[in-house]
Amino acid sequence: MRAQAGDHVVVESRSDHQHRKQGEVIEVRGEDGAPPYVVRWEDGHEGLTYPGPDAHIVPAPRES
C-alpha cells in the first residue's frame, strides 16, 4: 500500500453493524509512501494508522 498526503484511506465494513470509515492522509511516516500514516478521520479525530487488509487508498486528484 502506498499513499501521499491528500489521499484518502477507506476502511471497508467488516460486518453489517459497522460502517465504512474514511479519512484523509495528512502525513506519511513510512518510506516511499508506505504506512504508517497520520489520518484525519471523518469525525475530526487524527491518529497514527497502519491500514489492514480491509483498507484501500483513493488517490487525491493531482495537477498535471
Automatic annotation (TrEMBL):
<feature type="region of interest" description="Disordered">
    <location>
        <begin position="45"/>
        <end position="64"/>
    </location>
</feature>
<protein>
    <recommendedName>
        <fullName>DUF1918 domain-containing protein</fullName>
    </recommendedName>
</protein>
<dbReference type="InterPro" id="IPR015035">
    <property type="entry name" value="DUF1918"/>
</dbReference>
<feature type="region of interest" description="Disordered">
    <location>
        <begin position="1"/>
        <end position="31"/>
    </location>
</feature>
<feature type="domain" description="DUF1918">
    <location>
        <begin position="1"/>
        <end position="57"/>
    </location>
</feature>
<feature type="compositionally biased region" description="Basic and acidic residues">
    <location>
        <begin position="9"/>
        <end position="31"/>
    </location>
</feature>
<dbReference type="Pfam" id="PF08940">
    <property type="entry name" value="DUF1918"/>
</dbReference>
